[in-house]
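Posting here for the record, re: S-adenosyl-L-homocysteine.
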Amino acid sequence: MTDLKTHLIDRIRRTGPLSVADYMAECLLHPRFGYYTTRDPLGAKGDFTTAPEISQMFGELIGLSLAQCWIDQGAPSAFILAEAGPGRGTLMADILRATRAVPGFHAAMQLHLIEASPTLRAAQAKALRDFTPQWHDQLSSVPANQPLFFVANEFFDALPIRQFVRDADGWREKRVIEQDKDLAFALAGPAPQEALTHRLEDTKGGDLVELCPAAPAIAADIGQRIAEHGGAALLIDYGDWRSLGDTLQALRNHERTDPLADPGQADLTAHVDFEAIAQAVPCKFTRLTGQGVFLERLGITPRAQSLAKGLQGAALDSLVQAHRRLTHPSEMGTLFKVLGLYPDGKTAPPGLEP
Ligand code: SAH
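Prediction output follows.
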């Protein structure tokens, strides 16, 4: 039994069942036993691989899209470049390398990173040692007086979700209980859920829906800053416009496992409900676009061809493979999606449509 499982069973005995969101928050961010707090989970030796870890092309193209937004908005002389959940800092390092050649961009930028994990903060400091990022536990402490150019890849999918099953008399929340000295799922009694009123139209008895309480709140803050001061956001994640069904997933050593089996030892994520994010922002949002289409529009194929010129053998194969993984519909191309945020009256970020 993991230390975290002992802690959770103890907590349930003392204060009652946990919502799935409480359980997820403990598993991911418990200060001593949490999954992100205690390790670097990324890469071939870790539990999962993300787009920036697959190829530098991902971050380069994102950097150029954000820099083009900055130019389209008159190249403001002071702005905030921020990332939430920067992992190993790879995406931001690629963004900064690609934007080095954009006149004035680095001189105007102030770099802010939102990261809960001390282990990953250390990795980010190393990857970004040529810069002076400021770290934050939450977006709310990032200064809000300048244009905000914001990126997040696989951040929203790590935010805790609540799960509800519909029945005749309302919604029954799924909770984590103690059963025979182990953890199990159980349904609470039915209760009305105001936040789920819009789901009465597209669900029936027995359907499970998910709510991520933190996502709209964070999105509203990003959108408010962009509406007031300008800027743009690229939010990249797996999910869809509206999710239906149980999408809670545990990954360990690149394999799916039971989310209750080893709390704190496996990554826990859920599909992102982009509708909930878009409906929360006071600025403009783009059409939700597949990652493959987005990267193709930004020129990933010519970029791959140019990188390929100097390569042969295994290095060339791995570049071709990376291009495919990022863009192909059977890989990350359609499951992963991009939502852009931008100010009213301005151009949508390159690669995305209004
Ligand atoms: N964006 C990176 C890493 C994705 S993993 C990449 O694409 O490779 C999720 C990241 O979000 C990790 O850096 C994790 O520590 C961070 N994170 C998860 N929940 C968080 C929270 N509530 N607040 C701040 N950071 C969080």
